[in-house]
Every structure is written in structure tokens, then in C-alpha cells.
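queue> pop job 88
queue> type: inverse folding (structure -> sequence)
queue> payload:
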């Protein structure tokens, strides 16, 4: 009898949990990567204030951020400010004010854009700062779509792009990831995308890798005109060729797994198709920046690619 009572209590809890999750309080958790300067290395001493802007879709309701870790030296602190009614205010507590570190910290719920502030004193003591790995939000996100998702410049066609991989790509273990990335775009239906492997160093897409440390990006894609002039992200011109440079040492120093590295490679190949970054943290896209576990184009990315190509 007692056992039966317990079972119905469990069922009742399950029922209410499921109603709760499908109600107006339904929320979505999305992976993000927001970190203080130099993380996982030490931040710079006496920087006074280091702001990391939290960009979110205007169509979401409220949101909260999850810090995987905050580490500060004595007298330094991390806080989150947001603007309610046009005035900047703390979105709750100051998260760490003494030397040491904490992990697994959710902020209070926030509305509108916010800033993560790392406030440091010039006392010779530094630590690693913060890394935010999740956002939880209510409502619907608004990704960049159609023309807004792209640079104003691109190849004239991507239906048969020649791709050269320098020997360094294999040296640092990225050949399979490049193949996977190319295949994930090639497989999109209702889009005219194709790649042909080339042994020519003058192919349209030229991919190489290096083991140089001290840089602050995982990889970089750069388009050029046919005469070799670098094209900026705001120019309206046609690409002649593009380079992708993979920074193996940087990814290793940031602790990227094979999955995280695959994300970086697929992301860069998105740039090859002229996809720009998706900056709103609540959006699910291969075109968000950072150390993430998404490895192929999301539904948003796919529909954008189908729009342009
Ligand atoms: Zn990028």
C-alpha cells in the first residue's frame, strides 16, 4: 500500500513537471562561449574594467547566463550589469570578490543586453577570469536570415569550388575534419554546392595549418580578389580565391577536443560560403564563435545557405 502511494506521487510530480515545461515558462538552453581576455591564461592586471557584451535577440523574453568558472585574484571581481529602464544596474550579486575560484554559477534572470564586467586592481595579482558556457532563455530567438546572414561579397558560384589542402593540414590532424566539413555543406539539398579536391596551390580554396602559439583565434578565413587583394567583410566585390589558416597550437592551448575542432573547421567553411557570424547568443548556429560542440550547419544555417546558393 505504501509503495503504491509513492508511485502515484512520482507520477504526479512527473505530470506537473511536464506541464510546467510546456507552459509559458518553457525555456531553451543554448551552448555559448564567452570568456575574459586571455582565458585560460591570466587576464591583464589593472585593466580597471573589462566588458564582455552579451548580445541576445530582441525577441527573447528573459535569460540567465551560466558561468562554468570564475577565478579572480585578491581585490578583483566579476559582475554582470544590465539595463533596466535605461539605467545600468547590477543584475544581482557580484559573483566573486576575493581570490580563488567558483564553478557552476547561474546569474539571476536578465532582460535586454548586458555586460559581464571583470574589474581588476593594479596590485600585481591576476587570475584567469571567467568563462560562460550556457545561456537559458524564454521566448523565441531571432537569427540573422537570408541576405542578412551573409557578407556582401562572395564567390560568384560555389557549385564546383576547387579545394587545395597543404601538407600541414594532415600534419596537424585536420584532413578528416576538412572532409567532414565540406561534406556537411555538399549534402544540403536545394543548394548548388560542390567541392573538388585539387593539388594546385592556386585552387579557389587554399587550406593550411600551423603550430604557432600566442595568437588569439582558432582559425581564420580570408577572401582575396583574383589579383590578390584582401577583401574586407564590408566590401561588395567578387572573390577570386580564399585562404583558411588553422591555428593548431591555439586550439590545443584552449583545450579544444576533436569535436570542438570539427566545429571550428565547419565554421570556417561556412565563411567560405560567405556566411557571417551569428552574434546573438541564443541562436543555434555553426556560425557562432567560440569553443562549441555543434559540428554541422543548424537548420538556420541550412535555410540561409538554400536562400543564397
Ligand atoms: Zn568566424
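queue> result:
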Amino acid at each position: 500500500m505504501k509503495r503504491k502511494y509513492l508511485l502515484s506521487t512520482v507520477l504526479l510530480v512527473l505530470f506537473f513537471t511536464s506541464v510546467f515545461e510546456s507552459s509559458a515558462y518553457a525555456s531553451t538552453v543554448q551552448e555559448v562561449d564567452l570568456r575574459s581576455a586571455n582565458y585560460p591564461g591570466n587576464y591583464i592586471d589593472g585593466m580597471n574594467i573589462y566588458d564582455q557584451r552579451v548580445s541576445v535577440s530582441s525577441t527573447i523574453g528573459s535569460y540567465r547566463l551560466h558561468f562554468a568558472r570564475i577565478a579572480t585574484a585578491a581585490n578583483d571581481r566579476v559582475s554582470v550589469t544590465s539595463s533596466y529602464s535605461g539605467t545600468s544596474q547590477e543584475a544581482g550579486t557580484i559573483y566573486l570578490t576575493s581570490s580563488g575560484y567558483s564553478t557552476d554559477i547561474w546569474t539571476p534572470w536578465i532582460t535586454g543586453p548586458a555586460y559581464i564586467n571583470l574589474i581588476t586592481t593594479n596590485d600585481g595579482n591576476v587570475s584567469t577570469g571567467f568563462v560562460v558556457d550556457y545561456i537559458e532563455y524564454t521566448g523565441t530567438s531571432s537569427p540573422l536570415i537570408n541576405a542578412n546572414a551573409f557578407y556582401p561579397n562572395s564567390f560568384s558560384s560555389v557549385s564546383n569550388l576547387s579545394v587545395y589542402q597543404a601538407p600541414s593540414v594532415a600534419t596537424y590532424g585536420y584532413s578528416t575534419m576538412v572532409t567532414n566539413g565540406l561534406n556537411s555543406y555538399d549534402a544540403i539539398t536545394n543548394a548548388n554546392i560542390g567541392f573538388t579536391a585539387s593539388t594546385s596551390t592556386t585552387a579557389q580554396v587554399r587550406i593550411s595549418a600551423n603550430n604557432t602559439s600566442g595568437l588569439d583565434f582558432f582559425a581564420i578565413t580570408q577572401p582575396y580578389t583574383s589579383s590578390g587583394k584582401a577583401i574586407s567583410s564590408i566590401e561588395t566585390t567578387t572573390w577570386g580565391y580564399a585562404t583558411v589558416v588553422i591555428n593548431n597550437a591555439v586550439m590545443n592551448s584552449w583545450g579544444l577536443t576533436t569535436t570542438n575542432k570539427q566545429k571550428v573547421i565547419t565554421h570556417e567553411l561556412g565563411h567560405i560560403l560567405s556566411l557571417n557570424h551569428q552574434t546573438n547568443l541564443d541562436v543555434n548556429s555553426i556560425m557562432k564563435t567560440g569553443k562549441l560542440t555543434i559540428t554541422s550547419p543548424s537548420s538556420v544555417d541550412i535555410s540561409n545557405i538554400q536562400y543564397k546558393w
